Amino acid sequence: MFRIATTIEDASKHLADPLVQLDITMNSRTYVYHKRISGREELEKIILDVSKKLQSNACLSVVVSNKAGEGRLLVCGDAVIGAVFRDGKSGVVLTGERAYIRILEVVTQQDSIVDIMAVERDKLPADIRSLVERARVAAIPAGRPPMVWIGSVLYGFKVERIIGEGGISYVLEGIGANGRFALKILRERSRFGSPLAVGNRGAIESFARMATAMMKMTFASRGVVEAALEERGVTEGLRDKVRLLTGFADNIIRVYGVYIPREEYRNLDEYVKTPPVVVMEYVDGVTLDRIEANVSPFEARKIVYEVAGALALAHTLGFGHFDVKPQNVMVVRVSGFLKAKVFDFTALPIDRRRPPALEEITPEYADPYSLLHGARAYPSYDVYSLGLMAYRLFYKRRPYARLALNYVVLKRVVPKLAESMGRVLPPEAQEYTRKFERLAASMHDPDSFLRAAEELLEAIEPLGPPPGQPENIVDILRKMLALTPERRYRDAIELLKDLGSLFGVTF
């Protein structure tokens, strides 16, 4: 098992530079290994064996390549100093620990070619050499989440690979007695550093409530849905509405089980042995953000309708998603058409009021009204987020002015999140930020600001007819994206009535 140097993130940024890669190659002694391999264990064994045969002052430059992409590792002794991975399809480059995880994933999934060169430490580029020296006395175990679980067995599921990571959870692929499953594990700490599974029992309980709520949604009987609609005062066409809503359960990734420890974790070791796990349906598809640019107008409309239906079912049962975005929608092709499967519900009760949590907000898809009013558990929050997602699907571009608006709002309510958003704010959005800054400076009342912001949005980024869509869809989109609740759909149930008409469905 390798160790990961604490300096891996800084070293990897240098290693990603093609000139640095060339420098290392030119200063390497020679190729010391070239072979086709299959599996993570074989890769690790080869690197460790080669390291032992070399002098202690030599490092290894390792290149692993296959159809999925190309990974580069700089290994000194038993420590990974730097890691870079370039995706073979998208060209996206990962660095640091994320790159190392991805390299291990692709090696596990398919045969690869590994090339290893030896390079003296004193011949490494100066910036990397200094990081190597620091890393020799400051290395931490690589056997930590989520990598520590690869190849192990959790609650009867053999962990095959890491599917992804979110702000509060890891998602792994596990093999059980009945096939493949997605294992969602609550992180020990959030990406912002706040305690979750270790040191925060409340986070574990919220995680369990989320899973329980998703089970209720995906396995809700017609009787339960009917009772929920009757409680809302729905009587006309009740049976048809129940049948339609329960059908949307198939557009939510199912939850089959929850494993939650009874006692609090005293340390990381206890957490690693029995982490909080939600067992979910494994979907052999991709997230919507990976393909949204290539979705046809009809499929874009169908996806929005199906996501709205999934949200309508959740809202009927009293829960919200509150993090709707393309990254939380899986798409699979069924009978020639794309089908949406929504996941990662926060599953907060829709009547709950509380300030937004950093880990649960995606800045680009946040609802300005909810942020400015200190609460986010309004069902219309989901409608607004879905509207932003629909905008991207319909127009094949990002809503830059609305990005700028969210940035300005977050600077006032969650400065820490605005700071991270500002670092990745596209130039097209930056030109609008000054307009909203001036508007915000002149108005101290949130509602007045939002009304004025809506007028400004209509002037600088008006909603025109989306290509290939019915004429009335722009009216639906405008109502989804209204900044004030009196002009927006109250919830996804109300939205579904209008969206259904596009498919000849009466709700």
UniProtKB/TrEMBL annotation:
It comes from the Archaea. InterPro entries: Kinase-like_dom_sf, Prot_kinase_dom, Ser/Thr_kinase_AS. GO terms for molecular function: ATP binding; protein serine/threonine kinase activity. Keywords: ATP-binding, Kinase, Nucleotide-binding, Serine/threonine-protein kinase, Transferase. The keyword Transferase applies. Coiled coil: none annotated. Residues 157-503 form the Protein kinase domain. This is Serine/threonine protein kinase. It comes from Pyrolobus fumarii (strain DSM 11204 / 1A).
